[in-house]
Amino acid sequence: MNYKMARIGAMVKKKTLAAAALLVLMATTAHLKRQRLRSCYVRPINYARKEKGEFHTLVADLRQLDAERHHAYFRMTTEQFSPFQITATQILATRAN
Fold it and tell me: Which residues contact 66 (CB under 8 A, 6 or more apart)?
């Protein structure tokens, strides 16, 4: 009798593991489908951010190329932003020396 119970228990475990594996596979497949459906647009200004850094690419390029995006990012125009940039540059220059 114990042998049959052990065998039934092993079969139940195998079926449970198979069901769990199937659920994981289905969840992964659903996640990949959702991920493939997404598409995002990366503005050309942001391509070099990883290599050069945010300041060297974003701030300078936004000032020169896209005043509207500059205003959306900093919530101020380039004319309003200039005094802050000059002050920050002076403070950082004195701290560097």
Answer: 45
**Dist. CA 8–CA 84, nearest whole Å:** 75
Per domain, the residue ranges of the chain are: 1-39, 44-96
Per-residue pLDDT of 42-79, as tens digits, reads: 777 777 777 777 776 778 888 888 888 889 988 999 89
> Which contacts of 83-92 are long-range, i.e. CB under 8 A and separated by 24 or more positions?
85/59
Query: CA 56 to CA 62: how far, in whole Å?
Result: 10
The answer to whether the pTM exceeds 0.85 is no
Read off the amino acid at residue 72. A
Residue 54 CB: number of other CB atoms within 10 A? 10
Beta strand residue intervals within 15-80, DSSP E? none
| Residue 41 three-state SS | coil
